[in-house]
Amino acid sequence: MHKRGMSGLEFILAFVLFVGFTVAALWIFNPVGSPKTLEYSGEYTLKKIISNTSVGLESYSIAIPVDADKILIYVSGINSNKGVSAVDYSGQILSSAKSGGGYCIGVNNKKFVNLYFSEDIISGSDSSCNSGEYEVASSLNESVISEKRISSLKASYESNYLELKNQLGIPNEVDFSFSLEFSTNDKISAGNVKSFGEIFSKTERKEVLRESNGIPQFGQLTVKVW
Amino acid sequence: MDKRGIMKIIEASAAILIIFIAILTLSMTRRASTEIDLSDKITPLLEEIAKNNAIRDKVVENSADVNETLESFLSARIIEPNIGYNFSVCINLNEICSMQGNYPKDIVGNVYAGSRIISSSLSKAEPKRVAIFLWFKK
Q1: Which of A102, A142, A108 lies closest to A125 in space, CA to CA?
Q2: 3-state secondary structure (DSSP) of residue A196
Q3: Residue A1 has pLDDT above 70, yes or no
Q4: Does position A115 have pLDDT exceeding 70, yes or no?
Q5: What CATH class is the domain B39-137?
Q6: Of the residues A115, A142, A169, which one is the last residue of a structural domain?
Q7: Which pairing describes strands A200-209 and A135-146: parallel, antiparallel, or unpaired?
Q8: Residue B9 contacts A where some CB pair is shorter than 8 Å
């Protein structure tokens, strides 16, 4: 028996199979968003996040030969809009404030302190300090990530993701999320991965200026793109 | 019933499937051959060691628990299960600072190394070289 309708059915079946294979091949090989493209986008996004959240940090090591409770320290060349923070040799935070043209540091009889200066450190003022003996031992100028700016980036991500992508110069077809982790319970993260396809993730260990105390601390900055 | 058309579709499907599997296998093999450079991970770790005065003191004074301290420092930061690590604290700066213990057998690809000299603590100036080694594990 010859059924003329069968040729139509065969045609439909062949078409469905062809479309099925083509879609599967495009989905698996993804010629538009290849892993290499995703890798470049991930590295670019990480670089842009770092450059957009970095701040200058000036560090000075100060030796104090005599016992003192508080001491007024003058460091030349520090911009007046920069705040100050201080730690002793073991990393314990010391009180610090601006005082006239100098900085009032609660050295608490410590013989060695580290002072940090940055525009992202908020300082009060204290006029109760007297001048004392001290010596600048070393200094370092570097660029670190600011936790304050990471929080601000997170706020922009949550309020207007598309505008942020535009600001960072991230292509429309690429999506991203980021996180900055100091410990399991101490992290800032923005966005979740919304893809079943390939995801590129890159983590860098970076020095971060903490917002709460103005002290630098190392953390893991992770960027995921898809 | 004429089943020649159906047979041709099945044959064509089988042919596409074979080509598809071959391309997929080739693509997977190519992707596995690229190796990530781990040396970028070493520099920040050495930087963090240099800025941590507690670790500096132990390295410069070559204290008995310096290896334990560095082990605990690295294990907290190298959390990827597929990355192996080792470290050395070398007293003689003119000699090559090689990996302590036996050379690991579970290495895939290269071993990445980086070192930094820690020259002094608050009370002592006896430079030591700290070296970190990273590799991908099988």
Answers
A1: A102
A2: coil
A3: no
A4: yes
A5: alpha beta
A6: A142
A7: parallel
A8: yes
Could you tell me the two tokens for A28? 């698996």
- Say yes or no for a CB contact (<8 Å) between B47 and A207: yes
| Measured torsion, CA atoms of residues B130, B136, B137, B138, in degrees rounded to the nearest 10 | -160
Q: What is the pLDDT of residues A12-55, one digit of tens each?
A: 877 887 888 788 777 766 655 556 678 888 899 999 999 999 99
Confirm or reject contact between B42 and chain A (CB < 8 A). no
Q: Number of Cβ pairs closer than 8 Å across A and B?
A: 53
Chain B neighbors of A35, CB-CB under 8 A: 31
Instruction: Nearest by CB to B122, from A13, A35, A89: name it.
Output: A89
Residue-averaged pLDDT of chain B: 87
CA distance linking residue A84 with residue A7, whole number of Å: 83
A82/A129 same-domain check: yes
**In a 3-state reduction of DSSP, which class is residue A209?**
strand
* Inside any domain, residue A10: no
Distance from CA of B101 to the nearest CA of A (A): 27
Q: What is the pLDDT of residue B30?
A: 60
Strands A71-73 and A102-105 turn out to be: antiparallel
What's the rounded Cα separation, in Å, for the pair A225 and A218? 23
For residue A119, give its domain range.
56-142
Nearest CA distance, A10 vs chain B (angstrom): 6
What is the tens place of the pLDDT at every residue in B56-106?
A: 999 999 889 999 999 999 999 998 899 999 999 999 888 888 888 888 888
**Alpha carbons A157 and A180: distance in angstroms, whole number:** 14
How many contiguous H segments (helices) and E segments (strands) does chain B have?
Answer: 4, 3
Q: For residue A132, give every residue at least 6 positions away whose Cβ sits within 8 Å of its Cβ, in sequence order, or none.
A: A64, A66, A68, A71, A72
> Phi then psi for A71, rounded to 5 degrees?
-145, 140
pLDDT of residue A3: 56
Q: How many domains does chain A have?
A: 2
Contact call for A6 and B2, based on CB within 8 A: yes
Percentage of chain B surpassing pLDDT 70? 92
Q: Tell me: pLDDT of A102 over 60.
A: yes
The residues near B16 (Cβ < 8 Å, ≥ 6 apart) are A17, A21
